[in-house]
Amino acid sequence: MRPTLRRLFAILLLPLCAPTVALLAQEKKSDTLFTVEKFLDLEQVADPQISPDGTQIVYTRRFVNKLEDRFDAALWIMNADGTRNRFLTKGGSARWSPDGTRVAYLNMGDPRGTQVYVRWMDAEGASSQITRVEQNIGDIRWSPDGKWIGFSMLVPNENKWPIDMPAAPQGAHWTPAPKYETDLHYRQDRVGFTTRGYLHLFAVSAEGGTPRAISSGEWSVGARFDGQTGAVGWDWSPDGKTIAVAAIDDPKADLVYRNSSILAIDVATGARRRLTSQDGAWNDPVFSPDGRKVAFSGYSNTKASYQAPEIFTMNADGSGVQKISSLDRDPNNIMWARDGSGVYVQRIRTRHGQRLLRSGFGHGGHHGDGRHAHAERQLARPHRYRCRHSQRL
Q: What is the model's pLDDT at position 213?
């Protein structure tokens, strides 16, 4: 079909309009609007960690590195009352040692990627890089005796190009081999192409050395949603002999949708056993102070597109599962009371930020019909208190 004069006019007009459209799309500076320029000047604070004696708080500050086009992080420290807020060191994900004399944290190091560092919290403040591994590290935890630091790390299992090619001469700069994928999930937002492999737990001496694998095999720790990488929920038992971890204990974890288990792993032998018997999305196990119970979050299998996780407890052998919450928001950061009388969690609220809740045991006692009385307290408003019963599962 031959173009009409109207169509020809529109085609000729587009190049003339393009500069005008580009000018309209450019962002204007503003003192009242939240522009990209203001976003680049923002700093974020996260992950506050209270020292064992309750006197100091270490936290992470993240900011935009405009020259390198990335986020950088630094650790700051202050007194518990907010005074003496000051820079500590570069890095993030700080964790106090059980005796409060050291802080373990993550920072870039040799040979590449994130490594574990330990800083002594004395006047000298010496820091040491205690791992030298090839893969990025995450989810660090001190062992209860302060002698080991556990962490998660990817064990690569890359697909190999099956075509035989002549060896490249020394110093040659050949085109890299083609990358081919057989996994459903091979890319991720803010990451790009991901490295194929299995995520496992390791432990390294707090004084440095070669890390030792705690878990191994063709399965991954972490309750990953749709195969995407993320934080791993795990915890040491108080005696340091067992680790509870959320995991997808399946070689085809890439195809598993919202289904994970809580496993108990023997630190000495690596033997694992499943604690949760019901299929569902279970995550974030935390041992009670006496090691007799495990608190965790999640929900049983559902066809709903969204399900808010609940808080559960069970005995350390997986028996006696009990739901102790009824939430309409995702809970975070499960933590036991020091005397084991209850569990603290953070609940996100869309309009009012986060609220700290406490689900306690024994408020009203144990009933003969198998029910446990428990209370849920919103600590931000301590005068608002509600108590209800939950049926033992």
A: 97
Q: How many CB atoms lie within 10 A of CB 155?
A: 17
**DSSP category for residue 84:** S
Query: Per the confidence metrics, is the pTM higher than 0.70?
Result: yes
Q: How far is 232 from 224, CA to CA, in rounded Å? A: 8
* CA atoms of 137 and 109, how far apart (whole Å): 11
DSSP secondary structure of 21-40: HHHHHSPPP-SSS--HHHHT
Pick the closest to residue 316 from 353, 289, 337 (CA basis): 289
- Which helix H or strand E contains 208, and what residues bound it? none
- Give 234's Cβ-side CA count (13 Å radius): 37
In the DSSP assignment, the letter for residue 62 is E
Instruction: Return d(Cα 17, Cα 19) in angstroms, integer.
Output: 6
CA distance 372 to 351: 32
Sequence-separated (6 or more) residues with CB below 8 Å from residue 161:
177, 178, 180
Residue 191 CA to residue 185 CA, distance in Å, equals 12
Residue reference for tokens 């040659």? 172
251 upstream amide cis, omega within 30 of 0: no
Tokens for 41?
């000047």
Residues pairing with 87 in the sheet: 76
Per-residue pLDDT tens over the stretch 83-131: 999 999 999 999 999 999 999 999 999 999 999 999 999 999 999 999 9
Q: Which residues contact 257 (CB under 8 A, 6 or more apart)?
A: 226
> Of all residues in the chain, what percent carry a pLDDT higher than 70?
80
Contact residues for 220 (Cβ-Cβ < 8 A; gap 6+):
198, 199, 200, 247, 248, 253
